[in-house]
Every structure is written in C-alpha cells, then in structure tokens.
Amino acid sequence: MFKSMLRTVTVASILAAGAFAAHAGNPSVGGAPMYDNKNIIENAVNSKDHTTLVAAVKAAGLVETLQGAGPFTVFAPVNSAFDALPAGTVETLLKPESKDMLTKVLTCHVVSANAMSDAIGKMVMDDGGTHDVKTVGGCVLKAKADGGKITLTDETGGVATVTIADVKQSNGVIHVIDKVLLPKG
C-alpha cells in the first residue's frame, strides 16, 4: 500500500512538474497563465484583458481557424485598445452585417508564421530599421524596434507597441499590443 501511495505521489509530482515546465517560459496574460501546449483560442479565452478580442473573433467566425494547426503570430490588442476606438466602433463591428469588415480588421492582426520577437527584431535590423509585415488580411504593417520594444504601424498611421512578447502557443505565438491595428480605408 505504501508503494502504491508513493507511486501515486510521484506520478502526481511528475505531472505537476511537467505542467509547470510547460508554463515556465510563458508570461501570464490578463491574470491567467498561458500554456504553450494550448492553442491561441484556448489561452486567449482565459485572459481578462482580451474579452473584447475573443468576442470579436467569435463574431467574425475565426475561432476554428485560430484553433487550427497554424503557425500563427497574433498581435492581440487588449480591451483598452478597443475602448480607445471612436465611440460605437466596436458595437458596429460586432453586428452581423459588419462581419466582413470585422474579419478584415482582425486578420490584419494575424501573420502566417511563428514570429518570435527576436526574429522580428532581426528582420527590422536587417531591413535598416523598418520591416514590412504582411498579414493574412492583406494589410502591411511596419515593424520597428524602439527602445527595446517592438512597434507596429498600421496602414492608417496608428502605432501599437508590443507590451508582452513571445507568449508561446501550440500553434504559434501571441504578442500583446496596446492599440487596434486598422486597415486603410
């Protein structure tokens, strides 16, 4: 019986250590641990700072896509970034008749690659200080390194700063940003 209990404790300890190791390299986001063995959606739904983004992804019908194999890099705006948009913008975008525009805005935050911040920084340096980032939505963002932080300029001239970088996911990476990136027009 003692051996059985010891084995149970040992197995539980190993499983707990494995769960900790899977999380050890990832920062928490929105007060929630982010696990590199979960996909973008499985992690994002737990962040209290990304409830608007999650609602928008659901309204646009992109949940299944972002649960897919990827790899994806998602520049994930926090709730306050959506709150900073002109009054009524979010409500309008979440309406069924605005699904195409919402999808365009959201896919301008997604790149078909697993782009960690050090790789983005290297591309910026290799390109002389600015690197064009082509998104799955057809937008071209301008990435720059500014004071040790990565910034992204959208097609309207808006600038977002990566506030939490390199949140590893099973299907890519999330970089938390402080502004919503917008397509031209």
UniProtKB/TrEMBL annotation:
Transmembrane segments: none annotated. The keyword Magnesium does not apply. InterPro entries: Adhesion/Biosynth-related, FAS1_dom_sf, FAS1_domain. The keyword Signal applies. Pfam families: Fasciclin. Residues 1-24 form the signal peptide. PROSITE patterns: FAS1. Keywords: Signal. Residues 37-181 form the FAS1 domain. PANTHER family: FI19380P1 (PTHR10900:SF77), PERIOSTIN-RELATED (PTHR10900). This is Fasciclin domain-containing protein.
